[in-house]
Design brief:
With about 900 residues, the chain is mainly α. Helix 21 runs antiparallel to helix 22, helix 21 packs parallel to helix 23 and helix 43 packs across helix 44. About 55% of the residues are buried.
């Protein structure tokens, strides 16, 4: 019954109208039990004329059944499965046990769910309805959440019902919500008019309505049940709906308790089974001497409704009340009977019934649940696998099995993205682990989780201790743990620890015959040496590592090494063309749906592109890395993306967003102790102040950055803000400070001796050199820039050189340098720097044409990603699959791209993107 819900009905109608017009949307209906969520969903179905309907309901007893909810939801749409990209179709078919399965990234199933929604909607608009979504199995909930967050241009409306206060797929999803409150007095009266039939007098009915409305808060279920039964409410406060619902549940228990024994046993069997189909529990009923006829009295009591061979509870509270009121012994008895009665095809359900029937250690039930967990993990149902492994551990008789199963539960929980449970499960595994091999695996996972969560100090400590313990036991794992500990030390800004760890790696690597260990050892040592100021040996080690990786197809395609492989070119800053190497890593990750590595990989790819001429790609990649890291709860990667995105935005003149992102990065850095993030954010804020002509503010930021470097002992001269401080000192007339800083920077750059930093040093020398010496410095800088890929720095040198030439009245030569600077700045979209170069050129007496606003700069990050992929030859479907979108969403954004760029075809798009 849907009474008094006009505003809510209008919201649902608007959602469906939007879907019919081609715009996807989602609405979560949230409220207490009995508040009317199901009625509102039923109303949506009733008005969904001309729409395909995909509908399911979360069942509390199926919360541990892998993809049970998703399979029921998608069943009518599965005929469209073959229209999905092959990797998506295979992942979803494996998850739903339609085809042989393999372990996939958890997000691959979500992407496939979105794809199937979109494919099904090609026929006509789709309404997706999920009632009691808080009881969906975790893997189904994650898949629906992933898809719902990405609906844009597909005619798909998603309507979810979730009980207030229950964990659900809404947690952390930021989906639109419709909060249902109690009904008003008039609506409450209308409900009671139907249920409290003994109150024929309007005055008596009004008095009852006033009392029950005040005491139930207008909860429809409470009004229906308590109004019809006459059960007293003892002045239940409006702000305590759980007390009202407890009273409602008590009425159900009373009805249940009044039934004969056979009826009560039949109802308890139905409640314990969790099945609606009576045929599934027929054998169990017969073993208890029961039959379907024993459900007649519960039906008359209004507890269930029997339709053919299926039974439906009047409300989920009825099932909870029946099951909860039974004794533990009675519950165990029916679970044991159910386990003995279920067919082989229901082996997962049988295992859970065995577990619920157990009274202590039970190796049979434990083994059965372990098999359930293994099957769930193979289908990428990691949350359900974790639950099965954890319960199996509690039932295992041997300590070793308990430890192994607790670790398996923790590992599956991490793959499911449930980081909060992982630490507890690892502690349980540690307490019982007796073998060194298992203890090492436990500590590796513990350190890995800490690192991804941004707890780098803990990660470094755990990984380093684990790596040392692994030497001689598992040398290959020892190398990996050393490398991860060293990377955590980098995030902490601790070069001394990095060097110390690097010295320990060769001993473990020498005992390994695999090339992966040799690669990680060389790369780790190179990173440590560079960060600590060893400018010659460090890059040589990194080059050796990258060449080793590049020469091996197995290593290059190993998802575990994709991020490590891209780190090498990022740290090198050299002119060698690593573009195809870096781009291939991203392609491999997308093709394999290795979404777990994407935030970190995208960040490093973006850094590589940001130090070349591919700023548009870098901005899109930083934005995507930020979105994914936020969705996954990976604080370190989120902070890194915020920091470097702010740095790029400052260079492009987007000062408000640069400031917001840098401030957020600094906040995360302060909480997590992430030194490189702090350094990057301060550099972004400093550059924003510098380019806006606020030298004092810029100096404060850069001096703070320098203090961080000194305090942490970071000697990588690439990070030094000395060139910017020299420029600021000259702008404020402090020439002696400028000369002192330039001299110190020249010495530090010479120690490293690589082209990028040497070019910056030569430019800095050119700024402070005498009138008869500056040209040599700038020419040397430009020659050195040619050996690097960072054309922004080249443009800054052209600008500085042109400015000095103009001041010495060499206007013709100055114009050539300034035009070169403008051409590069315009190509990059570095508008504030281009404005400075134009002002200098105007000062030489040359008329300067307006730059205009580059059309590409008007694209959103999402549009930019799509434009780049399409312009590089990807099809609409390939682009959609790679970016976890639907083809229609890609087409929707493409129309916006065409409008903003003033074009109408793919060839024009390719030309437009090539110009920028």
């Amino acid at each position: 019954m849907l009474v008094g819900r006009h505003a809510e009905q209008a919201a649902v109608g608007a959602l469906l109208s939007s879907a019919r017009s081609g715009r996807g949307g989602v609405l979560a209906v949230v409220g207490d039990a009995g508040i009317g969520k199901t009625s509102l969903l039923s109303y949506a179905v009733s008005i969904a004329d001309g729409m395909n309907i995909l509908q399911t309901r979360g069942v509390q007893s199926e919360a541990h059944v892998p993809f049970a909810g998703l399979h029921a939801l998608l069943r009518p749409a599965l005929r469209a499965l073959d229209r999905l990209p092959v990797p998506q179709a295979e992942a979803l078919a494996g998850a739903l046990a339609l085809r042989p399965s393999r372990e996939e990234d958890r997000f691959a199933i979500g992407a496939a769910t979105l794809g199937l929604f979109a494919a099904h909607a090609e026929e006509r608009p789709v309404l997706v309805v999920v009632d009691d979504a808080h009881w969906l199995d975790g893997s189904s909930g994650a898949a629906v959440r992933f898809a719902a967050r990405r609906l844009v241009a597909d005619p798909v409306a998603v309507l979810l019902a979730v009980r207030t206060g229950e964990p659900s797929l809404l947690d952390g999803a930021d989906l639109p919500r419709l909060e249902l409150d109690g009904l008003d007095l008039d609506a409450s009266t209308e409900i009671l008019r139907e249920s409290a039939t003994e109150y024929a007098d309007d005055r008596a009915l009004h008095d009852l309505a006033v009392r029950l409305h005040g005491e139930t808060g207008g909860n429809p279920l409470a009004l229906l049940e308590l109004g019809s039964s006459g059960a007293p409410l003892h002045v239940t406060p409006l702000h305590e709906p759980t007390v009202v619902l407890a009273t409602v549940a008590r009425t159900y228990v009373e009805r249940y308790a009044s039934l004969p024994d056979r009826a009560r046993w039949a109802l308890l069997l139905l409640a314990a089974s969790g099945a609606d189909e009576l045929s599934l529990i027929a054998l169990a009923a017969s073993k208890m001497g029961l039959s379907f006829d024993d459900l007649e009295l519960p039906e008359r009591a209004g507890l269930i409704t029997v339709r053919g061979t299926s039974a439906e509870w009047r409300h989920p509270l009825v099932r909870s009340a029946v099951y909860g009121s039974a004794t533990g012994a009675d519950r165990r008895r029916v679970h044991r009977v159910l386990a003995d009665s279920l067919p082989d095809a229901e082996s997962d359900r049988r295992a859970w019934h065995l577990a619920l029937a157990a009274t202590g250690a039970d190796d049979g039930a434990s083994t059965a649940l372990e098999q359930v967990g293994t099957r769930a993990r193979d289908r990428s149902a990691y949350e359900e696998a974790s639950l099965a492994f954890e319960r199996a551990a509690t039932l295992a008789g041997e300590e070793k099995r308990r430890a192994d199963l607790a670790y398996a539960a923790a590992d599956a929980s991490w793959l499911a993205g449930a980081g909060d449970r992982v630490r507890r499960l690892l502690d349980e595994a540690t307490a019982q682990a007796s073998s060194p091999e298992l203890q090492i695996r436990i500590e590796h996972l513990r350190g890995h989780v800490a690192a991804r969560s941004g707890r780098m100090e803990e990660a470094c400590e755990v990984l380093l201790a684990g790596a040392r313990a692994a030497i001689g036991v598992d040398n290959e794992r020892a190398v990996v743990m050393f490398a991860e500990a060293l990377n955590a030390s980098f995030y902490l800004g601790n070069p001394a620890t990095m060097v110390s760890i690097a010295r320990e790696i060769p001993a473990a690597a020498s005992a390994c015959s695999d090339p992966r260990s040799a690669f990680l050892a060389a790369l780790s040592e190179g990173m440590a040496l560079v960060f600590s100021g060893e400018g010659e040996r460090g890059p040589a080690m990194i080059q050796r590592a990258v060449r080793l990786l590049e020469s091996s197809d197995d290593l290059r395609d190993d998802p575990r090494l994709l991020v490590w492989g891209v780190m090498g070119p990022v740290w090198l800053r050299e002119a060698a063309d690593w573009s195809s190497f870096v781009d291939r890593a991203l392609i491999v990750a997308r093709e394999r749906y290795a979404v777990g590595v994407l935030p970190n990989l995208l960040f490093h790819v973006a850094v590589f592109h940001a130090t070349s001429d591919r700023w548009n790609e870098a901005e899109a990649e930083f934005s995507e890395a930020l979105d994914l890291a936020t969705e996954m709860g990976h604080d370190a990667e989120r902070a890194s993306a915020l920091s470097r995105l702010a740095w790029l935005e400052a260079r492009r003149g987007r000062f408000a967003s640069a400031s917001a992102h840098a401030t957020a990065a600094l906040d995360l850095s302060a909480r997590r102790g992430l030194a490189p993030v702090e350094i990057g954010a301060l550099a972004a804020l400093g550059e924003a102040e510098l380019v806006q002509g606020r030298p004092s503010n810029a100096a404060a930021r850069y001096e703070h950055l320098q203090e961080v470097l000194v305090a942490r002992g970071i000697n990588d001269v690439d990070l030094s803000p000395a060139p910017e401080l020299v420029e600021i000192a000259l702008r404020t007339g402090d020439r002696s400070t400028a000369q002192r800083l330039s001299e110190g920077y020249r010495h530090e750059a010479a120690v490293k001796g690589l082209p990028w930093v040497m070019a910056r040093s030569a430019r800095t020398d050119g700024l402070v050199a005498a009138e008869d010496a500056f040209e040599v410095c700038f020419e040397e800088a430009l020659s050195l820039h040619a050996a690097t890929v960072d054309i922004f720095e080249t443009a800054r040198t052209h600008l500085a050189y042109g400015s000095r030439l103009r001041r010495t009245r060499q206007r013709v030569r100055a114009r050539a340098e300034l035009r070169s600077a403008i051409e590069i700045f315009d190509r990059l979209g570095a508008d504030p720097w281009s404005d400075q170069a134009r002002a200098e050129l105007l000062a030489t007496g040359e008329q300067v044409s307006g730059r205009g606003t580059p059309s590409v700069a008007t694209l959103t990050p999402q549009e930019l990603k799509i434009a780049l992929m399409l312009s590089q030859g990807s099809t609409t479907r390939e682009t959609a699959a790679a970016l976890f979108l639907s083809p229609k969403t890609v087409e929707y954004h493409l129309r916006s791209i065409y409008r903003k760029l003033g074009i109408a075809s793919r060839p024009e798009l390719a030309a437009a993107m090539a110009r920028h």
